Amino acid sequence: MKITYRISESDYVGSIKQHFRLTSKHKIMYGAITVVALLLIVWGEGFMYPLAGALLAMVLVSFIIREVIYPWVARRDYKKYPGMKDVFTIEPTNDGFAMTSAHSTFMLTWDIILKWQEDDKYIRIYTMPKLFFTIPKSFIVADGYEPSVITDHLQSRFSQSK
Q1: CA 90/CA 12 separation, integer angstroms
Q2: How would DSSP label each residue in 55-116?
């Protein structure tokens, strides 16, 4: 069963945003830094204000990078590289996944798949910590299949998405 899909700009940006989403550990860390900074402002001496400002600036810069810079770079990359706009085909096989585009055909074998993640819109298959293939679930459904076609195949090799 072959599933054909195309990554739109919004799919690419959405997948990048999900990749860089805040985990629970990050949320706790940013919350703790913000609380410490606010405590320094409220109860600290005058010389602690610059430290509190630096802590709050660090949280703000991190937010701006994740919410503004990463999506901007993703849009720029999508427009810059025409291969991202190609139609892709993915087919589950015993060895992993056979992937085809207008410019290449290759096997995404089990030994190079590091992990996989899914959310309500996308399935991401990672071959390196920051290199992944995005499969929009909307195209899987449009081809007449359920997203579980891909996720069940991944779960047969990996216990769960990470």
Answers
A1: 17
A2: HHHHHHHHHHIIIIIHHHHHHHHHHH-GGGGSEEEEEEETTEEEEE-SS-EEEEEGGG--EE
Work out whether strand 3-6 and strand 122-128 pair parallel, antiparallel, or are unpaired: unpaired
Distance CA 95, CA 72 (A): 36
Find the helix or strand (DSSP H, E) in which 51 lies: helix 49-64
Q: Note the pLDDT of residue 160.
A: 61
pLDDT of residue 44: 85
Task: Give the mean pLDDT per block of 10 residues along the chain (162 residues).
Answer: 90 94 94 95 89 96 96 97 91 93 92 92 92 88 81 83 56
* Domain extent listing, the chain: 3-8+83-155, 11-80
- Helices 49-64, 24-43: axis angle to 10 degrees equals 150
The separation between CA 144 and the C-alpha centre of its own chain, rounded to angstroms, equals 25
